[in-house]
Sequence to fold (508 residues):
Amino acid sequence: MNFAVIDKVLLNSFHELQNYFTLAGRTFVRIFQRPFYYREFAVQFDKLGFSSLFICVLTGLFSGMVMALQSLIQLKPFAATSYVGGMVAVTMIKELGPVLAALMVAGRVGSAITAELGTMVVTEQVDAMRVEGTDIIKRLVAPRLKAMLLALPLLTIVTDMVSVIGGYIMSAGYGINPVMYISGLPQFMVFQDLIEGVAKPAVFGIIIAVTGCYVGLNTRGGAEGVGAAAKKAVVLSSVLILVCDFFLAKIFVVFRG
Amino acid sequence: MTTSNSIRMEKVCYSIGGRTILEDFDFRLEHGVNRTILGVSGAGKTTILKLLLGLLEPDSGNIFIGDLQITGLPESSFMQERRRIAIVFQGGALFDSMTVGENVGYRLFEEGKLSLTEITNTVMEKLTFVGVEAALDLYPSELSGGMKKRVAIARALAADPDYIFFDEPTTGLDPIGVYNICKLMQRLQAEGKTTLMVTHDLATAFTVSQRFTFLHKAHMLFEGSEEEMKACDIAEVREFLEPTDGSLFIV
Fold:
């Protein structure tokens, strides 16, 4: 690979990165500008948020159960099974709940956003909207971002709650009573953990919405292009979620002191 | 402030993926002169429409809507001038998630200046004009190709533009559909709208336009009336009008 190729690849990468952040920045500005497209927001909230509820409940339930199962096996030799509730809660609320919910939503919703916008691009609907005088960022991107900003933290809270319940269902089989299970929670958690558990999905929501919209609006080609764009959006969102999770965790650790 | 009644391109160059689509291209659409841009598929005809609308940014050169040079300007700053132009895209480009009525009234809803009753009346008037008023509550997926194009024309008319661009309006239609679209375009012209059409359909072009531009390999090879075009001795134009072996168009 010669320098010209490396130069071109780097330039393209930085160009893409610049465009991605430009779209994110413009969308944030437009969130506060009229018209607010309330109807579009409601539709997107239903499509992106409410429709993902079932998959998040399932994810939370089985993650909580498997977390409790593994913890109980590890804690039993030390006669510390009473701590299982705290362990499940802290792991799920701080880390697994936000990440798993976000990955599920990225797979389900990120691809849907990209496919919808990509299809609109290749069938010239986006161009038609622009000609009709519509600001497409305000009309297409901002409502999706607002919907994700609200929906993903709520979905994560549901995932966390269900996972704790799932943990209890598994623990009950090992003779842990509800009081013992719940009393373990405050021993492992502080209020900041709850903040962390809600702040992370908000950031992940931004990643899913902006990535989905960015890739969708830059779709080229026909049906094949839409398919490739949807795949790209899911992979990119998932990787960004995992990378950002690390940095967010680092930031929260620093603030914790 | 727009005073000039024309849309024009000056020395426009446009390329994509290393391929030159237009090179030093000059074009002028005067109000009242219905024009067709002809050329083989892939010659860059649709690109011209998108450049004129400011949907694409040229590599160099200037584009004017009236007196306003739109090249390099953010879209929001020439929205007012662009309202004078509407376009009927090749596939109709109707919004999937909206009914026919919502599609036609889209711009009026967006502007928010009219009441719901006024918008409904306007929508019905435009749909009646194009002859698809029965499709008011249908979704685009429930329409035939010809109906989609007619709804797209109704949507273009809703904003009462001065200029209407047509991108391959007769492609994929049966002869009756082609006839209906031609009649509609002629009615629009009679109502004072200026049409700019891109097509490779000669019969339609000669039916609805007075001036013709022939595009070939990023350049304008011919500009003139129907008679001038038919008498033109440029080899590519002759080959386009009366194809023999098509060798001049092999890229």
Observations:
- Chain A touches chain B through 15 residues (CB under 8 Å).
- The CA atoms of residues 31 and 68 of chain A lie 41 Å apart.
- The first helix of chain A runs from residue 3 to 31.
